[in-house]
Amino acid sequence: MKRCLITLLTAFVLFLVWSAVVLAVEPSMKKVVAGKENIVDGPIARRQLQSQAQSLLYQEKFDELEKMAQELRKTKAMFPEGVWKLHFFYMGLSPKVTSPEGWKSHLNLVDKWLQKSPSSITARIAAAVSWEFYGADARGKGYANEVSDEGWRKLGESFQNAHQWVEIKPS
Predict the structure, then answer these.
(1) Would you give the DSSP letter of residue 23?
(2) Could you report the per-residue pLDDT of 38-53, keeping only the tens digit for each?
(3) Cβ(34)–Cβ(46) under 8 Å?
(4) pTM of this prediction?
């Protein structure tokens, strides 16, 4: 069961990373509105959405994040190329850190959001994704046979933390 869970969560993280890389290489599409260039598609528009979500998170504007996510879920908003905007919203909430202090700060920030809104599905997904990314960073790079026992232990613990946030039913 544990091994299956770790495999599934690893696949999810790899999918997120893969989709970000694949979509980043597509050419952007632009739309001219009232004489102004408005980017509606492509890597620039996706990065703008990610940056907006990340900025709101680091400014601790949790209510605005909730509204944004609810709107994206409600409208099932997609970029014109057919990619879900909600995916890139959550990518914006994923940590952009690699130092132990950065991880601590990011995980504390997400925890603060969870304490403020314990039944928020948006905060729960942000926490799960954050723990998955932390585990992947703690595991280290390289082939499986090159990963230390400590790296595997941290990966498993972080995936268990991630799983707890998506498993618990909101009240």
Answers:
(1) H
(2) 556 678 889 999 999 9
(3) no
(4) 0.71
